[in-house]
Amino acid sequence: MRYRARVSGPLLDRIDMHLDVPRISHEVLRKGSPQGEETSASIRSRVVGARNRALARSGKANAALTAKEVKQLCLLTEPGHKLLEQAMERFGLSHRAYHRILKLARTIADLAHSDSIEVPHLSEAIGYRKLDRSL
Q: Which end of the chain is more exposed for a tag (fewer CB within 10 A), N or C?
């Protein structure tokens, strides 16, 4: 039986990404990861590039944006606004979670070399709030 500790909502609100990491099978540990997987060096390169885009845009990392800066820099399309509104209502997310989702969506868009936050970026960011209110 798997045990999962309960963490309070206000504490979860302060964590940007919530995700379960599945166990790695014995076979993968024994044989190594499959060919074609992204290397640590290429992942690092993408992360550095995304961070540089954020620094060029605002002079700081997306996680450090103020609420006012989020409003100015994390603009959504109308479908994006509707999606986020539905998620907020359906899952009872807080205002803090709202801002964290937008900052994370901005980072996901930066990783994708996108100047704007698109619905797939926003959907992914919402998905990373999995442990928030048992999504």
A: N
